[in-house]
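INFO  loader      accepted 1 record
INFO  loader      residues=94
INFO  predictor   begin
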Amino acid sequence: MLPAIEAYPQTIAVLKAMSSNHWSITAREAMMDLDMTSATLARRVCDLEEAGIRIHRERKVNPVTGKKYTRYWASPDQIQQIGVTPDMFEKSAA
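INFO  predictor   done
INFO  writer      dumping tokens
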């Protein structure tokens, strides 16, 4: 894994959460699963981008509440190119 990513435990947590959700995450998911604010998630996404991972942002609207939100996506191929795989997180959890 890249040293820039390893320097921030929260960035690793974001990658772990993304790996179990088709390489994507929203602020709500980060808040519920990682106890992380939307601002912290945005900063960790920037950390991933600074490490060379291209993150796509998809603006959406919740059909029930009408609230706008962003889903952050990372390309699985690109993630694997830097040496990150979902099974890395399964081993660390054991």
